[in-house]
Write a structure and sequence with these properties.
It contains 11 helices and 14 strands. A hairpin with a 4-residue loop joins strand 6 (108-111) and strand 7. The strands form 2 sheets. An 8-stranded mixed β-sheet has the order 5-4-3-2-1-12-13-14. It is globular. The chain is α/β, with parallel strands linked by helices and 280 residues long.
Length: 280
């Protein structure tokens, strides 16, 4: 059996528990795996700048690990302390996407590196006042981000390129209409039934995983990947040891070779102990 040399895991709905936290078992197991010389990667929709508490607890920064942030727009390599960025949404495209969302009556949250905007002041005020509501949906907003937020009107001009446009909706008809109107330049990823993210086509976690595998000179048999959302599919497709969580959407499970127990039941850790720790 080929030895695993790289572990890649999504955070929310995967490595983190049902309360979006790292439990002590997870922390201890990830640290022990790195002591075996296996590198660890967290791959998330969250912005890299909001992840210091997580990667420090897991000691990725002490073991030459990696962070794939913002759905593949960011790659941080702790071996040389360099952040690589690519594929933001241009200012003009961001404006056009917003107009289509207005047209389809979809509430949006627009993410920049250090600023958050929403076309619905009520949505924004609720998220700011009751952060736990967002955590139940998708904890993409950092604590720092909540210090820099603003509501915008339909024709407000926002200067600069943006990271992503998120949609808070369960109306699939409107979402599908938006997908058709966006065309082939963007992807609309479903993270759960209430939360969608618009990303540039070709920018995803899988592309950044390719870069890591090339740097580390790894084959697809030497990497294990865990995920639960549509933003994890491109990673799952690239390796043989691909695991969707039991709590993942069915569309995601179709791209995985194996199913792990749910994130609430330490599914990632159970697999890592069976495939790695118990075999050393």
């Amino acid at each position: 059996m080929t030895k695993i040399k790289l572990v890649v895991s999504d955070l929310d709905g995967t490595l983190l528990d049902g309360n979006h936290q790292l439990n002590q078992l997870t922390i201890d197991t990830v640290i022990n795996i790195q002591k075996l010389g296996i590198k660890f990667v967290i791959a998330t929709g969250r912005n890299y700048y909001s992840l210091d508490e997580i990667y420090e607890k897991l000691k990725l920064n002490e073991n030459d690990g990696y962070v794939i942030g913002s759905n593949g727009q960011q790659l941080y390599d702790f071996s040389n302390n360099k952040l690589f960025k690519e594929g933001k949404i241009s200012e003009s495209d961001g404006y056009n996407i917003r107009q289509l969302c207005y047209k389809n009556k979809l509430n949006t949250i627009i993410f920049y590196d250090d600023m958050i905007y929403s076309n619905n002041s009520l949505v924004l005020s609720i998220l700011i006042k009751f952060k736990y509501i967002l955590e139940k949906i998708n904890k993409s907003i950092s604590d720092r981000g909540f210090e820099n937020y603003n509501s915008i009107k339909k024709n407000t001009i926002i200067r600069g390129d943006l990271n992503k446009v998120c949609i808070l909706s369960s109306n699939k008809r409107r979402i599908n209409k938006l997908k058709a109107e966006l065309g082939n330049d963007f992807e609309v990823l479903c993270l759960n039934k209430y939360w969608y993210e618009i990303m540039p086509k070709g920018i995803n976690k899988g592309v950044m995983l390719d870069k890591i595998m090339e740097r580390e000179n790894l084959s697809r048999e030497e990497v294990i990947v865990f995920g639960d959302g549509e933003n994890d599919i491109e990673m799952l497709k690239r390796v043989d040891n691909s695991y969707a969580m039991s709590n993942a959407m069915n569309t995601v499970k179709n791209y995985a070779n194996y199913i792990a127990d749910s994130n609430s039941n330490n599914g990632v850790i159970k697999v890592l102990k069976k495939k790695i720790i118990n075999n050393t």
